[in-house]
TrEMBL record, chain A:
Residues of the Pyruvate flavodoxin/ferredoxin oxidoreductase pyrimidine binding domain: 257-472
Keyword annotations: Oxidoreductase
Entry-linked SUPFAM superfamilies: Pyruvate-ferredoxin oxidoreductase, PFOR, domain III, Thiamin diphosphate-binding fold (THDP-binding), TK C-terminal domain-like
Species name: Marinitenerispora sediminis
Database matches in CDD domains: TPP_PYR_PFOR_IOR-alpha_like (cd07034)
Pyruvate/ketoisovalerate oxidoreductase catalytic domain residues: 20-207
Gene Ontology biological process terms, A to Z: response to oxidative stress
Name of the protein described by the UniProt record: 2-oxoglutarate ferredoxin oxidoreductase subunit alpha
Organism domain of life: Bacteria
A Gene Ontology molecular function term of the record: magnesium ion binding
Automatic annotation (TrEMBL), chain B:
One Pfam family here: TPP_enzyme_C
GO MF, one example: magnesium ion binding
InterPro entries noted in UniProt: 2-oxoacid:Fd_oxidoreductase, THDP-binding, TPP_enzyme_TPP-bd
GO annotation terms (biological process): cellular respiration
Keyword DNA damage: no
Keywords: Oxidoreductase
Sequence ranges assigned to domain Thiamine pyrophosphate enzyme TPP-binding in this UniProt record: 70-217
Source species: Marinitenerispora sediminis
Keyword Oxidoreductase carried by entry: yes
Full protein name: 2-oxoacid:ferredoxin oxidoreductase subunit beta
CDD domains in the record: TPP_OGFOR (cd03375)
Position of the signal peptide: none
């Protein structure tokens, strides 16, 4: 039987099921297949903070959304074209996001009276006509998996657990994905348990074969590879890109990497990843708390290492005092804050960008710290290297504001040519710099205003540093009013001066005649970019710019802001960048905010943008 | 410890630290900073003993790092011409951990006090000891907050009247030695600011110990808690109260009394004539289980009746920096030194164009 193949330019699929159904794994595998096929893609995992909420309940629903296309795309997509619902809870939690005409593939085995009642369905939505707006494929995924594995030496429970691989096989057939990667993956993952390996591979194959033979699925789809710029690509999440960026930064600076960290969602994967790379000389220290994590990183930096700490909002709060000490001692330190919903424990597994003002101002005294924010998962690699450049060049702590969306989301990453990465070689101070062989630990470089980084073990440069105000030059304790004023201003001038070494803010304004600028920062780049495309396709004129340096700002920012009649600033907070822009540049930007723990939808931003454009005209 | 002629093996705790070609002098150990403690402060005596002792380490001055927190004692690093950091309240053990773990070639000393080390920094202290980071922690215990002018500390005796406890404290105090032994520190000792010889001997033993060494130093604060340790310094009483710990020697408190095993494994001080000389325990600092040393540390109850000083415990186990570095070496030996380009290009890749 030859089935019809339809060509699509893009598809959004959401896998949803119970926390124990393996939806993250399923989504990740589909993503890898899609990546190796050469589509552009973007992903959005969405999982509960609970490890295992009660089975079949709404709080236990875990999902993974993937957007893939034959062209360059910027977001995981607003609304799924296809929802795979492994149980009634997964349907209930996600059906509201579906546009009319979307496909629902539901695992009928789980649509029992009991499971329906658990999530408040009085009748079975697969049968009562309430899903009439959608194309519903009711498939008994569990029982078909169990039947397919009848001859295998696995328990019924293990057979049932392989239903996610059956679903993956079916979807892989539907979208003509290459299967070698997943088969190889299963082989490696279950190398120690051959019977489980065989069962999962068979379930995957059975799902594929089911698609090919059943009359329920008459059509399969083709999404051709995207014409991305030439190069070798891999799929990468933001957390992995941060980890790789830090390893690269250590190689480029010639410094050993030291990570002091305490487990916290959604930053822990950076600790996990770096702990695997000991052969690069990477030392990872799982501390007793957030404070010790950053303390140890600063101690290692005092000893000449590239000191890094990784955390999320609640941990950032605890690190503030040590970051202040790093400001005072003027030692290089990289602080990665993977932002999540706050305040307090907030939404551990959801995204937000509400730590900006804390990063800038959340310390006692005048405590300037450079702040950077990656704009996409892949950009996390470059931003980690940029953080290391600034930290080591200017002898300062640097805060990087990633977020939960970037951390767990993924996109294709063009693997850089290592030889083309910047040379950041660091030279520690080796000789006295003062009169009569004296060493002046706070004598500043006239260009960067950085003080020398003299590490223990260097003869003749013995010196003491600490949190008490330092005398200019000698670094001795000083309570002199004039000296304090000088040092406060010097530290600020040093951080302000970093702006001279960063590229000017680029504005994307194809026609050069836009009156409205949309300015974002950090993880909203994809959503804003997709919204801008929509508006332009509809004939709207809009300029887009995106900040990666939040402190100091690029030198041309004020000029860019003043160039446009209106500036829209969308943020996943209550207007923190907007506050800074108004205060700093006296430009009355239009703040658009939403704090739902999720990225902006492109459609929503496009509407807001259009409204601002219409008002301007 | 160094041989008579000064040749290696040297201090075992410094085996990864380079040897000084020419020894520096005690005078060179002093920085040019004016020492600013109150007249009569016990810190002066400790500083003088430490400055004289430092050259004995036999390592270059530049390989010595002193890290402190906040408090009167934490001014210590400023007065020594080595590398140093006067950090933030309670965090010195954490900062020192990062330094010591990444730089095995340094001799790292943490200077802290009863407030800094046991109150705000208690968590870091116990974890540094548990991990056996190669640092020497000197905790100056004056049983009071000095720098903030006289509030009770976590070692102040219950009922103490201070600025913040006008009716007497209701807190129970920590016994720092018991606490360190509870964290299974490999080296735990106690000494007194006024006994320079004993103090220097304990510093020597601490430096010799590889891994974390914890030393409690009874230190007098003449302004806010004067004579806190007077019974241990008074010539008429001290020999009856002080129990000088010497490895292999009988545990004697004065001429008539000795330490014997009690019914439930606790230690008690008894009249030797009554129990017999043979029941008096000989001190064994090398017992692998910390239980005996812990029992010793409880002898000071009630207050100062019998206070053991000297080395309670000296048991070697692998130091944190050595274990961490061994893993790096093992990984590099097994898979080869990491290759950045290969790492970045790992995983599933595809090529365009």
């Amino acid at each position: 039987m030859t089935k019809e193949v339809q060509r699509l330019d893009r598809v959004i699929i959401r896998f949803a099921g119970d926390s124990g159904d393996g939806m993250q794994l399923t989504g990740d595998r589909f993503t890898q297949e899609t990546a190796s096929f050469g589509n552009d893609l973007s992903t959005l995992p969405n999982f509960p903070a609970e490890i295992r909420a009660p089975a079949g309940t709404l709080p236990g629903v875990s999902s993974f959304q993937l957007h893939f296309a034959d062209h360059d795309i910027m977001t995981p997509g607003d609304a799924p074209d296809v929802l795979v619902a492994m149980n009634p809870a997964a349907l209930r939690a996600n059906v509201g996001d579906l546009p009319p005409g979307a496909t629902v593939i539901a695992n009928t085995d789980e649509f029992t009276r009991r499971n329906l009642a658990k999530v408040g369905y009085a009748s079975n939505p697969l049968e009562d006509g309430s899903l009439a707006a959608y194309k519903v494929s009711a498939v008994p995924l569990t029982s078909m998996t169990v039947r397919a594995l009848a001859g295998f030496d696995v328990s019924k429970k293990d057979a049932e657990r392989a239903k996610n691989m059956f679903a993956l096989g079916l979807l892989s057939w539907m979208y003509n994905r290459p299967t070698e990667g997943t088969l190889g993956f299963l082989k490696a993952k279950f190398a120690g348990r051959p019977e489980i390996m065989a069962a999962n591979r068979a379930a995957f194959q059975a799902g594929w074969n089911f698609g090919e033979t059943t009359e329920d699925f008459a059509v399969s789809y083709e999404v051709r590879p995207a014409a991305l710029p030439p190069g070798t690509y891999r799929n990468i999440t933001g957390n992995l890109a941060v980890a790789y960026g830090l390893i690269a930064a250590a190689e480029l600076t010639g410094l050993p990497l030291f990570l002091g960290s305490y487990p916290i969602t959604p930053a822990s994967d950076i600790l996990h990843e770096l702990s695997r790379h000991k052969r690069f000389g990477v030392r990872t220290f799982q501390a007793e708390d957030e404070i010790a994590g950053v303390g140890a990183a600063l101690g290692a930096a005092f000893g000449g290492a590239l000191g890094v700490t990784t955390t999320s909002g609640p941990g950032m709060v605890l690190k503030a005092e040590t970051i202040g000490l790093a400001v005072m001692t003027e030692l290089p330190l990289i602080v990665i804050d993977v932002q999540r919903g706050g305040p307090s424990t907030g939404l551990p597994t959801k995204t937000e960008q509400a730590d900006l003002l804390m990063a800038l101002y959340g310390r006692n005294g005048e405590s300037p710290v450079p702040v950077l924010a990656p704009r996409s998962p892949a950009d996390c690699f470059d931003i980690a290297i940029e953080a290391a450049r600034i930290a080591t060049t200017y002898r300062t702590p640097v805060i990087v504001l990633s977020d939960g969306y970037l951390a767990n989301g993924s996109e294709p990453w063009r693997i850089p040519d290592v030889s083309a990465l910047p040379d950041l070689a660091v030279r520690h101070a080796a000789e006295p710099n003062g009169p009569d062989g004296a060493f002046l630990p706070y004598l500043r470089d006239p260009e960067t205003l950085a003080r020398p980084w003299a590490v223990p073990g260097t003869a003749g440069l013995e010196h003491r540093i600490g949190g008490i105000e330092k005398s200019d030059g000698t670094g001795d304790i000083s309570y002199s009013p004039a000296n304090h004023d000088l040092m406060v201003r010097s530290r600020q001038a040093k951080v302000d001066g970093i702006a001279r070494g960063i590229p000017p803010l680029e504005v994307d304004d194809p026609g050069g005649d836009a009156e409205v600028l949309v300015l974002g920062w950090g993880g909203t780049y994809g959503s804003i970019g997709a919204a801008v495309r929509r508006v332009r396709r509809a004939g709207g004129r809009v300029a887009q710019a995106h900040l990666r340096h939040l402190a100091p700002f690029p030198e041309n920012l004020g000029e860019v802001l003043r160039r446009y009649d209106r500036v829209l600033v969308p943020e996943i907070n209550l207007g923190q960048l907007a506050l800074l822009l108004r205060g700093r540049f006296l430009v009355d930007v239009i703040s658009y905010t939403k704090v739902r723990g999720l990225p902006f939808k492109a459609e929503e931003l496009a509407a807001v943008l259009q409204e601002v454009i219409d008002r301007a005209e | 410890m160094p041989n008579e002629n000064g040749s290696r093996p040297g201090f075992r705790g410094l085996r990864l630290v380079p040897r000084a070609e020419t020894a520096f002098t005690a005078k060179q150990a002093k920085s040019d900073q004016e020492v600013r403690w109150c007249p009569g402060c016990g810190d002066y005596a400790i500083l003088a003993a430490f400055q004289s002792f430092l050259p004995e380490l036999g390592v270059p001055r530049e390989n010595i790092v002193i890290i402190s927190g906040i408090g009167c004692s934490s001014r210590f690093p400023y007065y020594l011409d080595t590398y140093g950091m006067h950090s933030i309240h309670g965090r010195a053990p954490a900062i020192a951990t990062g330094l010591a773990a990444s730089r095995p070639d340094l001799s790292v000393w943490v200077i802290t006090g009863d407030g800094d080390g046991l109150s705000i920094g208690g968590n870091h202290l116990m974890h540094a000891l548990r991990r056996n980071v190669n640092i020497n922690v000197l905790l100056f215990n004056n049983r009071i907050y000095g720098l903030t002018k006289g509030q009770y500390s976590p070692t102040s005796e219950r009922g103490k009247v201070t600025k913040s406890s006008p009716m007497g404290t209701v807190d129970a105090p920590f016994n720092p030695v018991s606490l360190a032994l509870g964290a299974e520190a490999g080296f735990v000792a106690r000494t007194i600011d006024s006994d320079r010889r004993h103090l220097t001997g304990v510093l020597r033993a601490a430096a010799d110990h590889p891994g974390a060494a914890f030393v409690e130093i009874y230190q007098n604060c003449p302004i806010f808690n004067d004579d806190a340790f007077a019974p241990l310094k008074d010539p008429g009483q001290r020999d009856l109260r002080l129990l000088r710990l010497e490895h292999g020697e009988p545990l004697r408190a004065g001429p008539d009394r000795g330490v014997v095993l009690g019914e439930y494994g606790e230690l008690v001080v008894a009249d030797v004539a009554e129990v017999g000389e043979e029941r008096v325990l000989r001190h064994d600092a090398h017992r692998p289980d910390p239980g005996y040393a812990f029992a010793l540390s409880r002898l000071d109850q009630p207050a100062f009746e019998h206070v053991p000083i000297g080395v309670f415990r000296d048991v070697e186990r692998p130091a944190y920096d050595e274990l961490m570095n061994a893993q790096l070496a093992e990984a590099a030996a097994a898979e080869g030194r990491g290759d950045l380009a290969a790492l970045l290009a790992g995983g599933d890749t595809w090529t365009v164009g």
